[in-house]
Structure formats: C-alpha cells, structure tokens
Amino acid sequence: IPQANPDTEIYLTSVLVKAGSTAPDIPQGVMYDEAAQGEWQGSAAGVQVNFEATHNPAHGQKHMDVGSISRDNTITLTAPQPLNLSPFENINWRMALKEPMTSQHNLFVSWWAQGQMISSEVAATISRDITGQYHTVAVALNQFTWQKSMPEVDALRLRWAKAGANTSHRGFLLDYVRLE
C-alpha cells in the first residue's frame, strides 16, 4: 500500500486490482448525474438550485447550479429507496466554485434516514481558490460518526456554513455525485 505524505496528501482508500484485470472492482452508486428517474432527487432550503442546468456539466448533459448561498442553506439529495452504505468507502462529486471560498466558508456533509440526521457532519475538503473549473471533492465514509454501525440512509445533506458575519457566496456548480 503506498504511503500518503500527510503534508500534501489525504489518504482516502486503497484499491485491489485483481491479477489479469485492468481496473479495480469498485462498487459504485450514482446518486446524481442527469437528474434522471432512479437517481436521488434534489431539494434545497434557503438557496435557489437548478437541478437540471445544462450550461456547464462536468459529466453527461446536466448538473446542479447552486445560486447565491448563505449560512445554513442546505441542498438535500433524497434516495428513491433506503440504501445500505456498507459496500461503499467514499462519496465524491465534481464541484466548480463561482468565486473563491474564504477560510470562514465550509460545506458540511451529513447522512439522514426517515427525516433524522444519523451521522455527524463532516466538512468537505474543497479547493477553495479554484474557480470556474471542476475539481473532485471526496469524503471517506469512515470520517463520519454514526448513530449505529453503517446504517441504511435515505438522504444526503450539504449545509453551507460561514463563521463570522453572514455574507452570501456566489455559489457553485455540482455534478456527478456518487458513492464508491
């Protein structure tokens, strides 16, 4: 297993590529890609989100365009049916900021079931200065503290946070949200 340099890298996971294979056998669950039937449905509180934007997708034809966002505004993706997370190790998505994030901005991720938060909130590590182009954001599922061991979930919530004075941020684009 390669070793991550803690000064410049974040170790997320190791992957086994079986002999004779050219790619790892990684379970994958697409949560949002084309706003299609069977994908997790989007909703928002306090912020305007176009869940079927087409002007700048990172993958496929559609993406989410998140408008001006302020403290405690949320974006929720709700599963068509409960999902057991145990086969998965990470959640990741593509994100393009419309303006840089300050050190006071954070995007927190949490998991929900039957209208109740069942995990801790984890701050996503985001390239704060990269604007106008997509980058991948990944959060390892082992970073969450769970109310019970790897439960079934039916929603993912992203919560925008801002320390200090609450000034709005111009927003961002999200695409290709998936579990691996």
Structure, explained:
The chain has 180 residues and is mainly beta. 0% of the residues lie in helices and 42% in strands. Strands 1, 3, 4, 6, 10 and 12 form a 6-stranded antiparallel sheet that branches. Strand 7 and strand 8 form a beta hairpin.
List keywords for this structure.
about 180 residues, mainly beta, 6-stranded antiparallel sheet, about 0% helix, globular
Q: Kindly estimate the percentage of residues that lie in beta strands according to DSSP.
A: 35-45%
* Low-pLDDT regions: none
Shape: globular
Task: Tell me the number of helical segments per DSSP (H or I, 4 or more residues long).
Answer: 0
What is the average of the pLDDT values?
88
Short note summarizing the structure:
The chain has 180 residues and is mostly beta strands.
Present the secondary structure layout.
Layout: E1 29-32, E2 41-45, E3 49-53, E4 63-66, E5 74-84, E6 90-97, E7 105-113, E8 116-117, E9 122-123, E10 135-140, E11 152-162, E12 172-179
Antiparallel strand pairs: 1-12, 2-5, 3-4, 4-12, 5-11, 6-10, 6-12, 7-8, 7-9, 7-11
